[in-house]
Every structure is written in C-alpha cells, then in structure tokens.
Amino acid sequence: MALLAFALTLLLLGHLHGSSARDLDPLGGVLAAIATLPLLWHRRAPLTVFAVTTAANATLNGLDYALGPPFGPTIALFFVAADERTRVRLDRTAAVVVGFFALHVGATMIAHHGFPTSPLLFGIVVWGGAWLIGDQVLQRRTRVRQRERDLTRERRLAAAEERTRIARDLHDSAAHAINVILVQAGAARLLQQKDPTAATAALSTIEEVARETIGEIDNLVHGLREDAGGDRPSGVEPPTGLSALDTLVDRYRAAGLRIEVGIEGEPCALPRRLDQAAYRILQESLTNAARHGSGSASVTITYGAGELGLRVWNPVPAGSAPEAIGRGHGILGMRERTALLGGSLEATPTADGFLVRAWLPYPTAGGTP
C-alpha cells in the first residue's frame, strides 16, 4: 500500500501540475517518499506515521508542487482511526490530527497566497471519510473480539457446570456403591456359616455393583479428560434414569432395606437431564436411608401437570439426630441438581424420621424438552 501511494504521488507531481506549479525534481521525489513510505511502519506507531506523512505532504504544498489528494496522510489517518492504541488517548490523537490538518491548510495558503476554499473542503471530506471508515473497522474488530470472549466465557462456564455435574455423579455413584458393598459384605460375613447360599448371593451383588460402578466411573472420568472427544467409550452407557428404578430398589432390598414404592399419575417420557437427576436424587435418598435409617423407606413418584414430584421418607433410630443427615455433600448435590433444572428440594427431619421432597418441572405436551 505504501508503494502504491508513493507511485500515485509521483504520478500526480509529474503530470498534474499547471503553469504555476513546480515541476517534479529530486526534492519533490524525496518529499513524496517521506509522505508515503512511512506507511510501512503504521502498525508500530500509526500516529507518528500520520504526523510524518502529513508534514511532508504539507511541505510539498508549501513549495508549490501540484495539489492533489494527499494519499499518504489519508491512508495514515485511516490507520490511526482503526488502531485501539490511538483511541485510548483520544484527546491527544484529536489534537495531533487537527493540528496537522491546520498545518496542511496553512502551507497551501502560503503557496497560493489566499484561503484555499476548495482544497479545504476537499480535505475535510477525504480525511473525514478516512476517519469514519477506520472507526467502523475498529468497531467491527472490537465486536468480533467481544463475541469471541463471550463464546470463550460461555464455553468455560459450560465446562465448569459439566465438571460440577460429573463430580456430583461421581459422588453419588461411589457413595451408593460403597454403601451397598458395605452392607452386603457384612451380610456375607455373618451368613457364611449359617446360610452359604445367602452369603454367595451377597457376594454376587457386591461383584455386580462393583462392575457397574467401575464402568460408570470410567464414563465420568472420560468426560474430565482434556483430550476427550465427544464420543463415549465403547460399551459405556450414559447414566441411567427412572427406568432403572426397579433395579435400584431391588439392590437396596437385597441389602436389607425394606422399601415401598408408589407411582401417582400417568408416567411419561422425561427430558434426559431431568430423568437422570431424578434417579440420582432417589439414589442418594435411599443411600442416606440405608446408612442412617432404621431399615425401611417409602418412595413416591408423582407425574403431575408439568412437574415431577419425588418423595422419600425413612424412619431413624430412636435417639439419633436426623438433622445430621442434611449436612453432607449428598444433600448439597441434590439441591444443586434441582436448582439447575429450575426446581426445588426440601430435605428436613420430621418427628420420627427424615423426609426428602423434590419438584422438578418438565415441559408438557407441545413444549420443548
């Protein structure tokens, strides 16, 4: 661009001079070079390049060389307007631009012994246009960078939310598995002499739970790896939902927990995230019931109009403090899951037990899941 501006300036000085204009000579060629070639350094110091090119072009006008479009200063002004550094101190930039424009007009007045009305108007239009174009380029560049920053921030927030979800899933899965394994291992130890068949069944349950938990943990850890792609490892399924409730209940029943399950309303297909969250809430509630309760629990699932209701109640042993149940990470994880879905959760002690109630909204027919 600098070389093109230099060539155009030489062409102007050599061919567009009138009877009173000065012919192109070595001095004019040097001044033309100073008025254009510094554009090569516009990225380093755009305001300085503008000052140098404008001063050289004003000298050309003052020495009575042919008047014409100031190619170098106009292009330099565009770079000034499009550069963020010059806009930080806009007052200084404006002072330099106005000052050198006045210098340009003054040099033209000296050469032509009068006020250059036409060159002045032409300069205002050309330089004003250069500034406006440069300003639009800067604004567009700023908007693009802002969108990129917003997208990056959204990706980071989404990643943080996903990692939080994975951490909750990991906690729930591990707590559930360890609790079941603990109960079954105790049962196997106590029954190994009296009832070898029951002891073997307990060990089989331990093996099954351990195998499923390892697969689920592999799936969760896969999502935490920085180099993990979007595909899941082969053979690993996403977390289960309420369709696996019977298996969950049977496992706790096998561990000795007496569970009553009730379904109210007409079961319907649920959004995947809500289905998984409901399963995890029930899983954590039953884990707490098995760990802190007195051997029984009741589960009620209500399919309402646009809302899924979950209720788990379990009695606690006499003399225990049910308030302590609500202080663990499991209850906190259930609250976070519910809040992310726009629902609400209560986990409170009652007179003789502990009650967990959750309400999870879901779209009705015709809505978007």
Plain-language structure description:
This protein is 61% helix and 11% strand. About 4% of the residues have low confidence. The longest helix has 75 residues. The protein contains 11 helices and 5 strands, in the order H-H-H-H-H-H-H-H-H-E-H-E-E-H-E-E. 31% of the residues are buried. The chain has a 5-stranded mixed beta sheet with strand order 1-2-3-5-4, with helices on one face. Helix 2 packs antiparallel against helix 3, helix 3 packs antiparallel against helix 4 and helix 10 packs antiparallel against helix 11. The chain has 369 residues and is an alpha+beta fold. Strand 1, helix 10 and strand 2 form a beta-alpha-beta unit.
Radius of gyration, CA atoms, in whole angstroms: 39 Å
Compute the number of helices: 11
List the strand order in the largest sheet: 1-2-3-5-4
Structural class label = alpha+beta
Which word captures the global form? rod-shaped
Mean pLDDT comes to 78
Main pleated-sheet profile? 5 strands, mixed
SSE succession: HHHHHHHHHEHEEHEE
Q: Portion of residues in helices? A: 55-70%
Number of strands: 5
Offer a few descriptive terms.
alpha+beta, 369 residues, 5-stranded mixed beta sheet, 11% strand
Explain the layout of strands and helices:
Blueprint: H1 2-15, H2 26-34, H3 46-62, H4 71-81, H5 84-88, H6 90-112, H7 117-191, H8 196-224, H9 245-254, E1 258-264, H10 272-292, E2 296-303, E3 307-315, H11 329-340, E4 344-349, E5 353-361
Parallel strand pairs: 1-2
Antiparallel strand pairs: 2-3, 3-5, 4-5
